[in-house]
Amino acid sequence: MLEINGLTKKYKRGEQIVSAVCDLSMTVADGEFVHIVGHSGSGKSTLLSLIAGLLTPDAGEIKIAAAPFSTLTDEERAVFRNHNIGVIPQMPTLLAALNVFDNVALPWYLAKKDGDVAGRVWYLLDELGIRDLATALPHTLSGGEIRRVLIARALMMEPKLILADEPTSDLDPTRTKEVMELFQRINRQGTTLVVVTHETDTLSYGDRVLELSGGKFVTCQQSHVQGR
Predict the structure, then answer these.
(1) Where is the ABC transporter domain (predicted)?
(2) Domains of the chain
């Protein structure tokens, strides 16, 4: 599903050049559920943004479902991402003028996809426990509610790959468990997941844990997966 070779991304910090991701390679198989962990500044969010095509690498390549994703134009990447990748960002990215229902439906509208858009939205709102927020505007929502709307939107197109950056931050333990169990159900249906997290309690829901430090992987371990 996901193949990365020699990925490098550098930033300029004052007069210093910092390598956020350094000659990094990894492979994630179809249907795998991988967690990426590491301390703040280790490169986790940068890596996820590179995979999502939101940042352009300085070197290396990214292939998603055998497609040369990193060599596509910005427009081609946006179209590919909308159809194939569900991105759950760490920072809120809901459109302020749209209510919850329309924010969740947005990827469908952008893709001009036929079918029962309303049915899909209501299903996801029910799954995330936010059906009663359908007509609410983003500025009225709590942090945890926004997080669940972002997750629903990422799932809207039934993507082949889900990239989640701290998807359970702002959630209480009960909601965290519900979200991770939802991810697990989606994964069992064949969707590949790559989840960045600092919450060790959620690691047991995945197949593998990769640790980043200084833009490189330093450890890899199998998870003791719950319910498998």
Answers:
(1) 2-227
(2) 2-222 (3.40.50.300)
